[in-house]
Design brief:
The complex is a heterodimer of chains A (about 300) and B (about 90). Chain A is mostly helical and about 300 residues long. Chain A has 16 helices and 2 strands. Helices cover about 55% and strands about 0% of the residues of chain B. The chains are: A mainly alpha (about 300), B mainly alpha (about 90).
Chain lengths: ~300, ~90
């Protein structure tokens, strides 16, 4: 009979799936204790250390965060109950009631707990998803083309390539847009156009109840809000810097997310109009051209 | 038969042993202390107590021979530069 030494037993235990999963569950419980002390005392402190309880604890944690108004991405099998976080402790998905399944789910939660981000709403700069099918983001194409020489140019790709790609995606019945898009090449704004000032002017321009300033700022990731200016892809490139669950201000995040969603809505609604109706495309180009002309004939205003 | 001098030495030794603080078995075997945590019979409150957390740290120290740096992925991430904030957000 081979007897493991005590140290070997400890090493094996620490490297086991159960250990890792238990530590993830305890981390969630500790965050609850730090951030939601009343809830922890009432519902969590007395729970026993079953794997399924740890899954419930993570569900309760994210439910409480959502109850603060923070919008979280959908992740894994976790179910949230923001209107009744205590229920989330018990609301396990049916397939996680067995210990081994719960342990596996906890392991998948590791990244969620350690490098976690609420939803960001910024536009990706990946060309294909933006213009795939030629049915959307013509507002963005329009703005990128006009501002190609300015300091706000995203520079994600040669704008001519972007235009060529968007044109290639347009279906036959949408050819009314094609000549408009081609014409944009000759309407580019001067490189020294003060874009901040232009955006301030456009903040005053309401078209069909939509604020052009907000739509333009969103399109160029110039809102000043992380949640409106960053896309998931950019966050990924930045290394998914982790959120500090112990000190993070959920109310501030919720407020910034709400503000970012407002920018997104103005962009999204205007893009739907621009991308569907050639006459709207023309009207928006005209409004932008007027604003640029006003800017070139008047001295800049203070911020 | 002991001499008075030997008696004195024994008493001094016994007194000295009595002064030593009692050491729980788990000090030498922290894994034993954690058994209820892993069989599901420990409460979360106890699991988060300093004694249990120290036992966990002792086991992990033994397993990974950690030097205190890079103890977990989370702590490594904490050293990365934060997302530049225009508006101050605690924790970013």
């Amino acid at each position: 009979m081979i007897r493991r030494s005590r140290d070997e037993q400890t090493r094996a235990a620490v490297r086991s799936e159960q250990w890792e999963a238990t530590m993830i569950g305890l981390r969630a419980a500790d965050i609850l204790r730090q951030r939601f002390a009343d809830f922890y005392a009432a519902h969590v402190a007395g729970l026993k250390s079953h794997p399924s309880h740890f899954v419930g604890i993570i569900q309760a944690l994210f439910s409480l965060v959502e109850a603060c108004g923070v919008e979280l991405p959908d992740f894994l099998d976790i179910r949230t109950e923001p209107h009744n976080p205590a229920a989330a402790l018990l609301a396990l998905p049916a397939h996680l009631t067995r210990d081994e399944d719960a342990l596996a789910a906890l392991d998948e939660c590791r990244w969620t707990l350690e490098a976690f981000h609420p939803i960001v709403y910024g536009l990706t700069h990946e060309i294909e998803p933006l213009f795939d099918g030629g049915r959307q983001n013509l507002l963005l194409l329009l703005l990128w083309a006009l501002a190609d020489q300015t300091t706000w140019s995203p520079g994600a790709a040669d704008i001519q390539d972007v235009i060529d790609y968007a044109l290639s995606e347009l279906s036959a019945e949408r050819q009314a847009f094609a000549e408009r898009i081609v014409r944009l090449r000759d309407q580019r704004w001067p490189g020294d156009l003060p874009m901040d000032e232009l955006a301030r002017q456009l903040d005053q321009v309401i078209y069909r109840e939509l604020n052009l300033g907000k739509a333009v700022r969103y399109a160029f990731a110039a809102t000043g809000l992380h949640f409106a200016d960053l896309s998931l892809e950019e966050l990924d490139e930045m290394g998914w810097t982790g959120m500090d669950w112990y000190s993070v201000d959920f109310a501030t995040i919720a407020a910034e997310q709400a503000e970012a969603r407002d920018f997104l809505q103005h962009y999204y609604d205007l893009d739907n109009l621009v991308s569907a109706q050639p006459e709207v495309f023309d009207e928006v180009v005209a409004l932008l051209t007027e604003a640029v002309a006003r800017l070139e004939t008047s001295p800049p205003t203070s911020a | 038969m002991t001499t008075p001098n030997q008696d004195c030495q024994y008493h001094a030794l016994i007194a000295l042993l009595g002064e030593l603080p009692a050491q729980p078995i788990a000090t030498h075997n922290p894994l034993a202390l954690l058994r209820p945590l892993f069989d599901g019979s420990m409460t979360i409150e106890v699991a988060l107590s300093p004694a249990i957390q120290e036992a966990i740290a002792a086991c992990e120290q033994l397993a990974y021979q950690r030097d205190g740096k890079g103890r977990s992925l989370c702590e490594r991430l904490n050293d990365l530069p934060a997302i530049p904030a225009i508006h101050a957000i605690d924790g970013w």
